[in-house]
Specification:
It is a single chain. By secondary structure, the protein is of the alpha+beta class. The protein has 3 domains: 7-183, HUPs (Rossmann fold); 215-276, SH3 type barrels, CATH 2.30.30.280; 281-362, Translation factors (Elongation Factor Tu (Ef-tu), domain 3), CATH 2.40.30. The chain has 6 helices and 18 strands. It has helices at 16-27, 51-65, 75-91, 98-117, 174-183, 205-212, and strands at 7-11, 31-38, 69-73, 122-124, 129-134, 137-142, 165-166, 218-222, 227-231, 258-264, 269-274, 282-288, 292-293, 302-307, 315-323, 326-336, 343-348, 351-362. Strands 12-16-15-14-17-18 form a 6-stranded antiparallel beta barrel. Strands 3-2-1-4-7 form a 5-stranded parallel beta sheet, sandwiched between helices. It has a 4-stranded mixed beta sheet with strand order 9-8-11-10, with no helix packed on it. A hairpin with a 2-residue loop joins strand 15 and strand 16 (326-336). The radius of gyration is 22 Å and the shape is globular.
C-alpha cells in the first residue's frame, strides 16, 4: 500500500473493533493515528446520544496506545449525502438502508479525504471484511467470521475508494478480537456493539422519524379490499412486518397472524395478508435502477448469489442487464419480503461484486 511515512489513520469510534484495528496496525509497524468522527448534530445529553461517551472511550484507547486522536465533524456532509436520501426514500414509501450510503459517502469518502489532508497514506476501520487486488483493481471479499461479515454494508464502496484501505479484522473472529482487547487491557474490551441507524444510534424509531416526516394516518386493508384496521403512517411499516399492526380478531378470518404485503401510496393504504408463507410475501424477481460493481464487473447475464438484507444467507440468482443502467435479479427460489429501498448485494463465492438499490419486485 502506498503510504506517507507508513502513516495510517484509523476511524476510532470508541468501540472494541476499531480499537483492536488500531492496536494490530501498531503491532505491524504502521505509524497509527486515530480520528473520531461526529456525523450527527445532537445534544450529547439526550438519552439516545452516546457521542460523548464514545469520544471518551476513544480518548482512553488512544492514550493507552500512545497515538494522536483527531476529531472531525462531518454532520453537514452526512445530512446532504446520506440523511436527505434517507428521508426522500421514506417519503416515497420505501425502506432505505442508510448504513450502505454512510460507508460510501462518509467513511470512505469524506473521512478518507480528511485523512489524506492530514498526510496519511491510507485509512483503516474496524469493519469485518477483506480486500485483495485482482489485476490493477482492489476487490472486496467477505470476512472470515461469517456471523460478523460486513461486506453487505460495503457493497456501494468503489474499487478506487478501497485502494488505500486496510481492514485489520478481516481474518479474525469477533471472539478473537475481544480476547485481544482484553489481553492488552483495552478499557472497552467488553463494550456492547452499537446498533441502530449509522451515526444516529439506538432510539425509538417511530419517534425519531416523526420528527422529520409528518405522519399521515390511513387504513389497513386485506388483499380483497376489506378494511380491518388503521395505521399511523405508511413510513412506520415495512414489507413482511408482523408486529405493531394493531389488528385484532377479524370476523370470518382464521387466527393466523397478519403481515404487511404492500403499500398503496396513492390511497395511503397498508395492505396485509394472513400467514407467514402467504404467496403475496414472496417475489421471484427484483429490479435495480443501477448496480455499482467493485473491481472487474462480471459478464452478464451472471449466475451467482444475492443478499437482499443483512445476515440473510446467500441466495442463488441470475443478474441480467435490461438497459445500460437497469438490472433484473431472478431468484432461483422465490424470496420473502424483498423490499424496495433496500440494497441487493451480489456475490461470487466470497467475493462481493457490488450491489444496487431495489426499486421494484415481481411475484
Amino acid at each position: 500500500m502506498p503510504t506517507s511515512e507508513n502513516r495510517v489513520i484509523v476511524g476510532l469510534s470508541g468501540g472494541v473493533d476499531s480499537s483492536v484495528a488500531a492496536l494490530l496496525l501498531q503491532q505491524q509497524g504502521y505509524l497509527v493515528e486515530g480520528l473520531f468522527m461526529k456525523n450527527w448534530e445532537e445534544d450529547d445529553g439526550t438519552e439516545y446520544c452516546t457521542a460523548k461517551e464514545d469520544l471518551e472511550d476513544a480518548r482512553e484507547v488512544a492514550a493507552l496506545l500512545g497515538i494522536p486522536l483527531h476529531q472531525a465533524n462531518f454532520a453537514a456532509e452526512y445530512w446532504d449525502n446520506v440523511f436527505e436520501h434517507f428521508l426522500s426514500e421514506y417519503r416515497a414509501g420505501r425502506t432505505p438502508n442508510p448504513d450502505v450510503l454512510c460507508n460510501r459517502e462518509i467513511k470512505f469518502n469524506v473521512f478518507a479525504e480528511y485523512a489524506r489532508a492530514l498526510g496519511a497514506g491510507g485509512i483503516a476501520t474496524g469493519h469485518y471484511a477483506r480486500v485483495k487486488r485482482i489485476g490493477d483493481q482492489v476487490c472486496l471479499f467477505k470476512a472470515r467470521d461469517e456471523d460478523k461479515d460486513q461486506s453487505y454494508f460495503l457493497q456501494a464502496v468503489t474499487s478506487e475508494q478501497l485502494t488505500d484501505v486496510i481492514f485489520p479484522l478481516g481474518e479474525l473472529h469477533k471472539t478473537q478480537v475481544r480476547q485481544i482487547a482484553a489481553e492488552h487491557g483495552l478499557p472497552n474490551h467488553a463494550k456492547k456493539d452499537s446498533t441502530g441507524i449509522c451515526f444516529i444510534g439506538e432510539r425509538r424509531f417511530s419517534d425519531f422519524l416523526s420528527t422529520w416526516l409528518p405522519a399521515e394516518p390511513g387504513v389497513i386493508e386485506t388483499l380483497e379490499g376489506d378494511r380491518i384496521g388503521a395505521h399511523n403512517g405508511l413510513m412506520y411499516h415495512t414489507l413482511g412486518q408482523r408486529q405493531g399492526l394493531g389488528i385484532g380478531g377479524v370476523r370470518g378470518a382464521p387466527e393466523d397472524p397478519w403481515y404487511v404485503v404492500a403499500k398503496d401510496l396513492e390511497r395511503n393504504v397498508l395492505v396485509v395478508a394472513q400467514g407467514n408463507h402467504h404467496p403475496a410475501l414472496y417475489s421471484r424477481s427484483a429490479t435495480c435502477s443501477d448496480i455499482g460493481w467493485i473491481g472487474p464487473a462480471p459478464s452478464l447475464p451472471f449466475r451467482g448469489c444475492v443478499k437482499v438484507r443483512y445476515r440473510q444467507p446467500d441466495q442463488s440468482a441470475t443478474i441480467t442487464r435490461l438497459t445500460q443502467a437497469r438490472y433484473r435479479i431472478d431468484f432461483t427460489v422465490p424470496q420473502r419480503a424483498v423490499t424496495p429501498g433496500q440494497w441487493a448485494c451480489v456475490y461470487e463465492g466470497d467475493r462481493c461484486l457490488g450491489g444496487g438499490i431495489i426499486d421494484a419486485t415481481s411475484p
